[in-house]
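User: Could you check the structure of this?
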Amino acid sequence: MYALIGTWKMSLKGISEGGQLLKEGSPAGDAVACAVMDVEANPAFVSVGYGGLPALDGQVYLDAGYMDGNTLTCGAVLSVTGIASSFAAARGLCGRKTNWMLTGEAARKFALSLGVKECDLRTKESMARYEEAMRTFNPGDPLTAYRGHDTVCVLGLDETGRMVSGTSTSGLFLKEPGRVGDSPIPGCGYYCDSRYGAAAATGLGEDIMRGCLSHECVRLMRQGMTAQQAAEEALRDLVEKKLSIGEDKGSMSLITLAPDGSFGAATTEACFPFAVATPDGPCLYTCVPGEKGMEIRAADPDSVPD
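Assistant: Sure, the predicted structure tokens are below.
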């Protein structure tokens, strides 16, 4: 059995290509890399990689994370700019005993040492978006997730049973330079243990980190919950806590994957699209909150907005 699952419609093409790699016997890490880096390279997807959302100073800073579920080793880069793929750098750091999480210039230099291309992540379109937003920007306004979608998260399972998780993002639009969300932080933005499952989160990182949502999902699967049950329970618990102290439910979504290839999703949004590839082929799904829990539905890609 193999499976690949990624957040948002923007991951569908990469998930389809990564699924084909798994079908041909490639390892989970290569399939996850294929899916994530396809999104990173496409400037039409404004929340990730090239053409990503600028920070307050007009620069694009990237965060990424990678975890190997067989060894529980991780790699991560934080607030790095000037490179084509933050995910490639994060994956390259995975397996180090120490120094596997690098920030800023150190992360950039490491990426370049791997052969990752140096590039200006800003595009004409992203700077036009930035300049328009700055005309009405008020420092007191709260920053929100899901402006042009959010983090690309991908979970993979290959025929050997190895599970891998990966993330990449440019973070919140108009964030303070140096701000880091959940995406590169293991246990928060991503987590996997090949014995029990994998999970990843997208949305407002400051909230996701409060619940360590990805680790919580895997913990619940370890206790016997299905991938779907774990996603719903982890999100429900944090939302109930937020509501109990007078906050709103927040903007958060989760994907989960079990060692048997079954998957799940949960969201606080009205509709959360995600893509899946299994031996049955690639498919786009939507997760919609319902009265009795989350409703997972197969979706026509043409009917789901980009």
